[in-house]
C-alpha cells in the first residue's frame, strides 16, 4: 500500500539549500511504483511535482500536493550493427555517475557533460549542455508515465522540442497543464564507439593538447575545468550557471566587440552570435558581490550562491539587479536558467 512522507523538508533536495516543504513526498523505484503513487494523488485530486536533485530549481515556496523523485537505477547497453550503443537508463541514476560509467566503457557522447549535477531523469527538462555538447545530441527518446491517467508514454527527441537549455517540459503550456504532464522514468540514448570528440572550447582544447583523446580523458579534463571555476553544491549552495549565454544579432555583437575588444564572442548560426554572460556580469562589477546570505561566486560571475540561512527572494532580487545593469550597459537581456517554483 502506498504511503508518502508527510511535510517533507526539501532543503537537502535542492542544491541552493532553501528551506521549503512538500505536502507529500515519495521516491518510486519502478514504473509500477510511480503509477501507484500517481493513482494515490489522482484519487485525492492533488497536484504532482516531479523532482530530480533540485539542481536547476529555485524553490521559493512550499510545494503543494505530491512531490515525486524517481529512484530507479536500471541501465541496459544494447550494441548496434553500426557501431553505436543504445543505452536505456533509469531516471533515478545520478547524471555524473552515468557519464563516468559510459566513458569508462570507452563510449563517446556524454564526456563533455561530466560533473553536471542532477539526476538523469531531469536532464531532458533543461536539455543540459556544456562545452559544445547537449543532451539532444544523443537522446533518442524519453519514457514516462502520464500524470492524468497513469499510462506509459514515449516521447521522441522531436516531441521534446529541445532548444538551448530548453524543452517542452519548461514551456508555459506544459507548466500550466495545457500539455499532458508526465513523470520521466527512463531515457534512451545513442552513444558511439568511434571517436567523435568535441573540443571547440579553448580551455578544453588546452587541457588535452598533445594528449591522446579518449572519452575518459575528455571527461576528466572537463571535471578539472569545472572544479576550478564552479563551487561544489555540497559546500556552497548554488544552481550552477544562473543565466543563459545570450544569443544576439551579429550586428550588436560586432558593435560591442568594437567597444570592448576583450569581449568573448562565439558563432551561433547565421546572423547571430553568442556572448559570455559571465563576462558581461563581471564587467558590471558583480563578481564576488555578497548581500547577506546570497552573492555572486568569486571565481565565476555566472554562478549565484546561497551561503545558508537566506531566501529565494533575496537571491532573485540580486539576479534582477544583475539583469538590469547588464541591460543598461550592454543592451543585452540576460535570461535565467533555473526555474523558479513559487
UniProtKB/TrEMBL annotation:
The lineage of its organism: Bacteria, Pseudomonadati, Pseudomonadota, Gammaproteobacteria, Oceanospirillales. This is UDP-N-acetylenolpyruvoylglucosamine reductase. The active site is at 165, 241 (proton donor), 337. Keywords: Cell cycle, Cell division, Cell shape, Cell wall biogenesis/degradation, Cytoplasm, FAD, Flavoprotein, NADP, Oxidoreductase, Peptidoglycan synthesis. Pathway: Cell wall biogenesis; peptidoglycan biosynthesis. GO terms for biological process: cell division; cell wall organization; peptidoglycan biosynthetic process; regulation of cell shape. Residues 17-194 form the FAD-binding PCMH-type domain. It is found in: Cytoplasm. One of its GO terms (cellular component) is cytosol. Its EC number is 1.3.1.98. Its main location: cytoplasm. It catalyses: UDP-N-acetyl-alpha-D-muramate + NADP(+) = UDP-N-acetyl-3-O-(1-carboxyvinyl)-alpha-D-glucosamine + NADPH + H(+). Cell wall formation. Pfam families: FAD_binding_4, MurB_C. Gene3D superfamilies: 3.30.465.10, UDP-N-acetylenolpyruvoylglucosamine reductase, C-terminal domain, Uridine Diphospho-n-acetylenolpyruvylglucosamine Reductase, domain 2. InterPro entries: FAD-bd_PCMH, FAD-bd_PCMH-like_sf, FAD-bd_PCMH_sub1, FAD-bd_PCMH_sub2, MurB, MurB_C, MurB_C_sf, Oxid_FAD_bind_N. It comes from the Bacteria. Its cofactor is FAD. NCBIfam families: murB (TIGR00179), PRK00046.1 (NF000755). One of its GO terms (molecular function) is UDP-N-acetylmuramate dehydrogenase activity.
Amino acid at each position: 500500500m502506498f504511503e508518502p512522507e508527510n511535510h517533507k523538508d526539501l532543503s537537502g533536495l535542492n542544491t541552493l539549500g532553501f528551506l521549503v516543504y512538500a505536502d507529500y513526498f515519495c521516491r518510486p523505484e519502478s514504473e509500477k511504483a510511480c503509477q501507484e503513487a500517481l493513482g494515490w494523488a489522482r484519487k485525492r485530486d492533488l497536484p504532482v511535482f516531479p523532482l530530480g536533485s533540485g539542481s536547476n530549481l529555485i524553490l521559493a515556496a512550499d510545494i503543494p500536493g505530491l512531490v515525486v523523485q524517481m529512484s530507479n537505477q536500471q541501465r541496459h547497453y544494447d550494441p548496434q550493427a553500426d557501431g553505436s550503443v543504445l543505452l536505456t537508463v533509469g531516471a533515478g541514476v545520478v547524471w555524473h555517475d552515468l557519464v563516468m560509467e559510459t566513458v569508462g566503457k570507452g563510449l563517446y557522447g556524454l564526456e563533455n557533460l561530466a560533473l553536471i549535477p542532477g539526476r538523469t531523469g531531469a536532464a531532458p527538462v533543461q536539455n543540459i549542455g556544456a562545452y559544445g555538447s547537449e543532451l539532444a545530441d544523443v537522446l533518442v527518446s524519453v519514457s514516462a508515465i502520464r500524470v492524468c491517467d497513469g499510462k506509459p508514454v514515449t516521447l521522441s527527441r522531436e516531441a521534446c522540442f529541445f532548444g538551448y537549455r530548453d524543452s517542452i517540459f519548461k514551456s508555459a503550456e506544459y507548466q500550466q497543464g495545457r500539455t499532458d504532464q508526465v513523470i520521466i522514468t527512463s531515457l534512451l540514448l545513442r552513444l558511439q564507439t568511434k571517436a567523435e570528440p568535441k573540443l571547440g572550447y579553448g580551455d578544453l582544447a588546452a587541457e588535452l593538447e598533445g594528449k591522446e583523446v579518449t572519452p575518459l580523458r575528455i571527461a576528466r579534463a572537463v571535471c578539472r575545468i569545472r572544479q576550478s571555476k564552479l563551487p561544489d553544491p555540497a559546500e556552497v549552495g548554488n544552481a550552477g550557471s544562473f543565466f543563459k549565454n545570450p544569443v544576439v544579432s551579429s550586428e550588436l555583437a560586432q558593435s560591442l566587440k568594437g567597444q570592448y575588444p576583450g569581449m568573448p564572442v562565439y558563432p551561433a548560426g547565421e546572423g547571430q552570435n553568442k556572448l559570455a554572460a559571465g563576462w558581461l556580469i563581471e564587467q558590471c562589477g558583480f563578481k564576488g558581490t555578497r548581500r547577506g546570505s546570497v552573492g555572486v561566486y568569486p571565481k565565476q560571475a555566472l554562478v549565484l550562491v546561497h551561503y545558508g540561512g537566506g531566501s529565494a527572494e533575496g537571491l532573485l532580487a540580486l539576479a534582477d539587479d544583475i539583469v538590469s545593469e547588464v541591460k543598461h550597459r550592454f543592451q543585452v537581456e540576460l535570461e535565467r536558467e533555473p526555474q523558479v517554483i513559487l
